[in-house]
Amino acid sequence: MKGQHFRSMLARQKRSELEEKRKQIDAMIQILDNGLSCKCLSWSECLNQMRNTDINGQY
Question: Source organism's superkingdom (predicted)?
């Protein structure tokens, strides 16, 4: 029984770690998608646009 409990704890911990990584990956994908549709002429203009981005991630 101890072995099953330990494996269950490890599985829950690993699942939690993977969920966090998924959030990070989703955020990175969003940044890349925004970059692909960016029409800014300079990095500073793009940075200003990102800072002014609304909650939906669109500018």
Answer: Bacteria
